[in-house]
Amino acid sequence: MTSKDLQAVRGTRDFYPDDMRLRSWLFAHFREVARCFAFEEVDAPIVEHEELFTRKAGEEIVDQLYHFELHERRLALRPEMTPSIARMVLARHKQLKYPLRWFAVTQNWRYERMTRGRKREHFQWNMDIWGEESVNAEAELIAAIFSLLQRVGLGDGQVKIRVNSRALLEETLLEGVLKQRPDAFAPLCVIIDKLDKIGKEAVIDQLSDPNGDVGLSQAEAEETVSLLEIKDFEEAAARAPQDSAAIAQLRQLFDLLQGYGVMEHVVFDASIVRGLAYYTGIVFEGFDARGSLRAICGGGRYNRLLETLGGPATPAVGFGFGDVVIAELLQDEGLLPDCVRCIDAMIFPFEEEQRPAAARLATQLRAQGKSVELVMAKKKLRRVFSDAETSGAQELYLLGSDEVGRGVARLRNLQSGEECDVPLPDSLSLD
RNA sequence: GUGGAUGUAGCUCAGCUGGUUAGAGCACUCGGUUGUGGUCCGAGAGGUCGCGGGUUCGAGCCCCGUUAUCCACCCCA
Pick the residue with more confidence: A314 or A416? Predict the structure, then answer.
């Protein structure tokens, strides 16, 4: 239909006014929840040095970078917000007052194959807490997620959050199969993250690949995978090392979530490890209860990220919440709001002679903060009404020679149909 | 990457086994006379049928290629 170079690039979206109203609606909820939780908004450039994102743990996110070289600098569009936030924290870590509660609503880029719920650019609501070691931070973040879900109408169990702790798995493995190679833990997590998608056998194959980053034996790989199949927290606690710190933390978190009143929608799941290498402790992800969509949001604790950038050890935890999957879920559930255009007033001067008066009235109303459309072209009154209707205007001001001569405008309430004269701004009487 | 489906008006789509000037609904424009809408009525505009080849007397329809979108799988957040 249209030539290729006139189409939006594959995997990207144009936001027309209708789409944009919906997006703004969602973002407004993101921001309002963040405000209620006393988080401060930050932002960073969408383009960063490529090295900020390239970590060596076999993460696919690194292969999916939109990157380019410009004047001998290797640059990349951010695939996620956390590294940029970490960079910002690092740059001012000596003057910042912890704990930080920061959030951002950002556009992220990943070059990947598209399917339902996955585009190459998408927006994410990112909430991070820096400088808090306790699971009180995780609890606040998970509560914030439920607050958002509640606001958009998904608070009745349509979304559940799976929680696990990488530390739990790490404790067990470092005493066992990874005793000699603790470094293999991060790449191991990246592989385990795929369990749901590629299945048990494929994960065992990858873990036991002699040329891979992990290189377990077949038996070790099978043992590892069996640890992930635990869905019952008490069973996991029973199988964990005695006095396990990870179990204690999870228990503490679950108690807290009880207090926030959200625990009924939270489940323990030992297979959740997340696909990013930097997570160190508790990890979690939100998914629709029917399980028909991809993860809605996800996050976890990354206490060593700042160190890997050369900074001081700083505990941190955060999550990302994408705009695409949530919109699909809302649509499936019939919960997308009708975001119709709605302005406060339309002003119509019948003839050009009344335009100066109309302009003053518009200026006055706009100064009051109203959204006012001043009709620019000459048109039939019938047309003006119909245009006012489609613009969602509440009021229509009509200015004919008679009205302006009397220093008034005819004001019609478009809902009730009631009309009355209202005085024009004083200065107009001089005209 | 593999398989399938789709691509006809601005939008959603119809178009029987190939046959004359390609249709509908919605949207749009104008009108139903002078300054009162959302309804109704009438009229109008708008399409090289994704693109390129081929078969045929004749192609929106058949064949080949190509491109885009969607779905599934593969792959992966």
Answer: A314
